[in-house]
Amino acid sequence: MKLTKTSVAKIEPQAGKQLLIWDTDLRGFGIRVSPGGAKTYIMQRRIGRTTRRVTIGRADDISAEAARRRALSLAAQFSEGIDPVAEERKLRARTRTLKEAFEEYKRAPKKKGTGKGAPKKAGTLRDIDKAMLRFSDWLNKPVSEITGRMVKDRHAKLAEASAAQANLAMRYLRAALNHVIADCDDGDEPVLKSNPVDRLNRLNQWAEVKRADRYLPEDRVAEWIGAVQTSLAGIRCDNESRDALLFILLTGARIGEVLGNAKDGYMPLRWADVDLKKNVVTFRQTKNGTDHELPLSSQLVELLTERKKIADKEFVFGNRQGDVPADLRNALRRIEAETGLHITAHDLRRTFATTASRIDISAYKLKRLTNHTSGGDVTAGYVQVTTDDLRDAMQRISDYLLSPARTGDVVHLSEARA
User: Fold this and answer.
1) CB under 8 Å, gap of 24 or more: what pairs does 306-315 form?
2) Same-domain check for residues 45 and 68
3) What is the CATH number of the domain that holds 265?
4) Per-residue pLDDT tens for 120-149?
5) Within a domain: residue 64?
6) Which residues, in sequence order, are bridge partners of residue 50?
7) Residue 204 — very low, low, confident or very high, per pLDDT cuts 50/70/90?
8) Same structural domain for residues 36 and 146?
9) Residue 54 falls within a domain, yes or no?
10) Is 418 contained in some domain?
11) What angle do helix axes 345-358 and 238-251 make, rounded to 10 degrees?
């Protein structure tokens, strides 16, 4: 039929079936009617070997006459060999803002490493959001307007406050723009011919960030452990904080694996993941996306056996009321006041790894102990280290850290429990 205001109004939908009605005067001009009654004007023509169908608009929003004029314009483009669908896609790509680029990158699956293809973790998404704040005045700009000079100047400004944060923000900017470059159909001209963040590489402008290297000095381990056992009384979850600190020191676990992290969706360590018959603990869904199983030294078995007598039934480091320390900062401040040692939970992980290296535990066992990925180490893929292979290493680390030669006496981790 000829599509007019009157004829379109008379079209009735068919239950369970979509209707396509074509105009008798203009080839390819039509209306699509859904089973629910929604009516949408369309224009369909072939271009080369491809059939393109362009949505013009809903009949509720645009008149038949206006839709026909739009269809005539599209017909002219088709006749000139112009693909309006491709042109529209190119226009959207050229006008894509930095905010849109960041949001698309956030939704994209992880591209490499452990967990490749999985959605980005909550912590990563939070870091991307923080990076976006560094470019708040750029977010509404088309990505094509972001230049290498802009990147160079912004990085220098950010580095004045924090070299590490400047580098991190630029890495996420680079990743978001690389995603824009990759998200381009074959044959289309890329929105960005190169990534403007690459200018930092050409200028060697990435800020130097020194890796943290703090750990417990060997000759002060006994003093620190003594402070852990005697100076935390009165703080919230004092027993739990004490045992968590000692546990982290002797396992090298990340604090989130022990106490959980609500923001990142990690639960605190559960008793269901501690096997005191086989003397094994399993950390679930760790930072690299895998479960991490470790054997327990005799000292850790002693600690956990005593802990179970006063702990919550579900969480290892929860009290009888089910309260788990949100973090260990209050406890560490108390210990620092007592010893003068400024030590973080991650410094204890570094102490564990340093001790393992000091007593000549192999690099492959150390990677397995700390649950680090092997990266590009091909040999590591051939060296299989089981949980039982680590029993001797775990015991030697505990023995070394708690040795009377350093502590002056045998340390009992079950001491000072209320």
Assistant:
1) 306/413, 306/414, 306/417, 307/243, 307/417, 308/271, 308/276, 310/239, 310/417, 310/418, 311/240, 311/271, 313/271, 314/270, 314/271, 314/272, 315/268, 315/269, 315/270, 315/271
2) yes
3) 1.10.443.10
4) 888 889 999 999 999 999 999 999 999 999
5) yes
6) 47
7) very high
8) no
9) yes
10) no
11) 30
Averaged confidence pLDDT in the chain: 88
Indicate whether 374 pLDDT > 90: no
Statement to judge: residues 267 and 383 lie in one domain:
yes
Residue 342: its pLDDT value, please? 94
CATH number of the domain that 108 lies in?
A: 1.10.150
Q: Are residues 78 and 102 in the same domain?
A: no
At 407 the pLDDT is: 54
pLDDT score, position 409: 55
Total count of domains within the chain: 3
Q: How far is CA 173 from the centre of its chain?
A: 15
| Band (412; pLDDT cuts 50, 70, 90) | low
Res. 316: pLDDT tops 80: yes
Q: By residue range, what is the domain housing residue 34?
A: 5-84
How confident is the model over 317-325, as a mean pLDDT? 92
pLDDT over threshold 60, residue 282: yes
Token pair 């269809």 in the structure block, residue = 71
Region label for 371, one of left (φ > 0), alpha (ψ between -120 and 50) or beta (otherwise): left
Q: Within a domain: residue 417?
A: no
pTM equals 0.68
Contacts of 175 (CB under 8 A, 6+ apart): 105
> What digits encode the pLDDT tens for the residues 72-98?
998 988 888 887 777 676 667 677 899
pLDDT of residue 377: 63
Could you tell me the CATH number of the domain that includes residue 52?
Answer: 3.30.160.390
Q: What angle do CA 246, 252, 256 make, to 5 degrees?
A: 85
**Quick one: 100 and 123 in the same domain?**
yes
Cα angle vertex 22, ends 20, 27, to 5°? 135
